[in-house]
Specification:
Blueprint lengths: L8 E8 L2 E8 L20 H10 L5 E3 L13 H4 L12 E3 L4 H14 L3 E4 L16 E4 L6 E5 L4 E5 L4 H9 L17 H6 L7 H4 L2 H4 E7 L5 E4 L13 H4 L8 E8 L6 E9 L2 H15 L3 E8 H11 L11 E9 L2 H17 L5 E4 L3 H12 L1 H8 L1 E8 L7 H12 L12 E9 L4 E8 L4 H7 L2 H8 L24 H14 L12
Parallel strand pairs: 4-6, 5-6
Antiparallel strand pairs: 1-2, 3-4, 7-8, 8-11, 9-10, 9-11, 12-14, 12-15, 13-14, 13-17, 16-18, 17-18
C-alpha cells in the first residue's frame, strides 16, 4: 500500500474570499497514510463464526480459508481482496455471497451483534479502494443477487437486484426499447448496486443527469440487519424525507443496497458520432459552446482527451487515427434522437461551422455502427491503455470548465522541476502526464503514468493536486467516490461542519462502525 508522503498536509479547510484555503499545516510527524491501523474494536473471526454463517446460507456461497476453519485456497479470495489495479489489497479470510436480501439481513444482524467488520462488494471496479477490505473484514459480495424483479414497459421503470451487471441490464432494457441512464467503461463488470452506492457518473451524465434523479427507490439492509424497503417505482412521492438519497453515494458505509428501482429513458432511434481534431483547450471549450447551441436537444455526449491519451490508446487498442494528422486535443461529439436524417444534418452542419470558423482543424463523422464503436473505443479504451503503459496514478476531479485542463500542465511542470519527467523521455520515472474527461460535467480524469508506484513521484502531486482543486472551488472526487484513497483529503472539498454532520449520520446508522470501516469519513 502506498504511503502518502507530502512536505505539508493541511487540516480541514475553510472558505475565504470565495476560495478554498488550507489552514493549520500538519507537521511532518503527522503525515497521513492510505492504510490506517486495524481497529481493536472489531472481533477476530473464528471457526465458530463461519459455522454460524453455514446455518443461514448455503455452504457453496461461503469462501473461508483454513485460518477461520474453512477449506478454500487463499488464492480463491484474491479477486475479492484486491482492486483491479492491485493498488489496494486486504487480507480477508471470509467471503460471503448471499442470494437473497434476507440472507444479507441475517449476516449483518450477526456481524452487528458480534462487532465483525464487513465490506460490501459489487463488481469491484472502483478506483479509490472503497470496495476491498483494508484488513481482515468479511467481504459481503452481492454478485449472487442478480435478478430482474420487474419491468414496466410503459413507464420504463426497472426494478432489479443490486448485483445485476450494468451492461446486462442495458441489454435487457434495449430489447424493450429503452436505455440505462448511465454508461461506464466498466459496464461489463460493474454492478448497479455499486453504481448507486458510488453515485457513478459516466458518459451519459450530460444527457440523463445524476443517479440522484434516475433512481426512484432502494432496498437497503442497515448495519443491524434492518431491511429498509423504499423500493418505490413512483416518479413523485412528496411524503417527507427522501431517505434513499442518503444511500446514493454513501459507498456502503450506511447500509448495503440490495435492490434498485431506476427509470430508464426511451432508447434513441438514431445515434451519430463525430471525432474532431482541436488545436487548443480553449478551442475545446468553444466547440462545446457551439455544440450545445446547435445540437442542444439531441446532444448526448461531449468527451475530450489530449494527445498523450490518444497515443496510448492507438498503441494498445490496435486502432488508427481517423483524422489526417495529429492534434493536441481530440473531441468526441455524440447526438441521440429519434430522426437520423435530422440529427445527421445537425451534426454535419456543426462540423462544417467549426471547421469554417477555425475552431477545429479536422473532423470525421462515423458512417455506420462499426465506426461509431471504434470512435468510442478511442475514448473508453484510454484507462486500459494507460494501465498497459505503466503504473497509473488516477485522479477523478471536478473543476470549473475554463481552468479544467490547467492542472495537467501544472502537475507536469512540478514533475519536470523535480527531474522526474520530461516529455518523450522514457528513461525518467514518469512516462506520461495526461488528461481526458467529460467537459459537460466539468469532470477531468488526470493521469500520471510512471514506471512504478514510488514515494518520490507521489510526494510531488499529493496533496498538491487536492490543494489545486480546492483553490478553484472544485471537488476532489467527481464520480469515483472517496473510499480509502481520498478519506484523509475530504477537507479539501467539505467544510469541517459538513464533515462533522457526515460523521453524525454515519454514527446514527452504524453506531458500531462495522460497515465498510476506514472509508469516506
Amino acid at each position: 500500500m502506498l504511503a502518502v508522503l507530502a512536505k505539508q498536509l493541511c487540516a480541514p479547510i475553510r472558505r475565504s474570499g470565495g476560495m478554498f484555503q488550507c489552514h493549520k499545516p500538519m507537521p511532518l510527524g503527522q503525515r497521513l497514510y492510505h492504510k490506517p491501523a486495524r481497529s481493536d474494536k472489531f472481533k477476530q473471526l473464528s471457526s465458530a463464526d463461519v459455522n454460524y454463517f453455514k446455518t443461514i446460507m448455503p455452504a457453496e456461497t461461503i469462501l473461508a480459508t483454513a485460518a477461520v476453519g474453512g477449506t478454500a485456497d487463499p488464492i480463491e479470495l484474491e479477486g475479492f481482496n484486491a482492486d483491479w489495479l492491485s493498488k489496494y489489497r486486504g487480507s480477508s479470510q471470509l467471503v460471503l455471497r448471499p442470494k437473497t436480501t434476507q440472507e444479507v439481513s441475517d449476516i449483518l444482524k450477526y456481524c452487528h451483534a458480534n462487532r465483525i467488520a464487513v465490506v460490501p462488494q459489487g463488481g469491484n471496479t472502483g478506483l479509490v479502494g472503497g470496495s476491498v477490505p483494508v484488513h481482515d473484514e468479511v467481504v459481503l459480495s452481492l454478485r449472487n443477487l442478480n435478478r430482474v424483479r420487474s419491468y414496466d414497459e410503459v413507464s420504463g421503470v426497472l426494478v432489479c437486484d443490486a448485483g445485476c451487471v450494468l451492461e446486462e441490464l442495458d441489454n435487457y432494457v434495449a430489447e424493450r426499447g429503452h436505455i440505462m441512464p448511465l454508461d461506464l467503461g466498466a459496464k461489463g463488470s460493474c454492478h448497479i448496486g455499486g453504481n448507486v452506492a458510488t453515485n457513478a457518473g459516466g458518459i451519459r451524465f450530460l444527457r440523463y443527469g445524476s443517479l440522484h434523479g434516475s433512481v426512484l427507490g432502494l432496498e437497503v439492509v442497515l448495519p443491524d440487519g434492518t431491511i429498509l424497503d423504499s423500493l418505490s417505482t413512483l416518479r413523485k412521492d412528496n411524503t417527507g424525507y427522501d431517505l434513499k438519497q442518503l444511500f446514493i453515494g454513501s459507498e456502503g458505509t450506511l447500509g448495503v443496497i440490495t435492490g434498485v428501482s431506476v427509470v430508464t429513458p426511451q432508447r434513441p432511434a438514431a445515434v451519430n458520432v463525430a471525432v474532431l481534431g482541436v488545436p487548443s483547450y480553449a478551442n475545446v471549450q468553444q466547440a462545446f459552446k457551439l455544440a450545445r447551441r446547435r445540437c442542444g436537444e439531441v446532444l448526448s455526449a461531449y468527451e475530450f482527451w489530449d494527445a498523450s491519451c490518444m497515443g496510448a490508446v492507438l498503441k494498445h487498442q490496435g486502432l488508427r487515427n481517423p483524422l489526417t494528422s495529429d492534434y493536441p486535443f481530440y473531441v468526441l461529439v455524440e447526438t441521440s434522437g429519434s430522426n437520423n436524417t435530422h440529427d445527421d444534418e445537425k451534426l454535419t452542419a456543426l462540423l462544417e461551422e467549426l471547421l469554417e470558423d477555425g475552431v477545429v482543424e479536422d473532423g470525421v463523422l462515423a458512417q455506420d455502427d462499426s465506426q461509431i464503436a471504434k470512435m468510442w473505443t478511442m475514448r473508453e479504451g484510454i484507462p486500459e491503455s494507460l494501465g498497459k503503459t505503466g503504473a497509473t496514478y488516477k485522479y477523478d476531479v471536478s473543476i470549473p470548465i475554463p481552468v479544467l485542463y490547467d492542472v495537467v500542465g501544472d502537475i507536469a511542470k512540478r514533475l519536470e522541476a523535480a527531474d522526474l519527467y520530461k516529455p518523450g523521455d522514457a528513461s525518467r520515472p514518469v512516462k506520461l502526464v495526461c488528461g481526458y474527461g467529460h467537459i459537460g460535467d466539468s469532470n477531468l480524469h488526470l493521469n500520471v503514468v510512471a514506471g512504478k508506484f514510488e514515494d518520490q513521484v507521489t510526494r510531488i502531486f499529493e496533496p498538491f493536486v487536492y490543494e489545486w482543486v480546492a483553490s478553484h472551488r472544485g471537488s476532489i472526487s467527481a464520480e469515483h467516490g472517496v473510499g480509502l484513497m481520498k478519506r484523509d483529503y475530504l477537507g479539501y472539498s467539505k467544510t469541517p461542519e459538513m464533515i462533522d454532520y457526515m460523521k453524525r449520520i454515519k454514527h446514527m446508522f452504524d453506531p458500531s462502525g462495522i460497515l465498510n470501516p476506514y472509508k469516506v469519513v
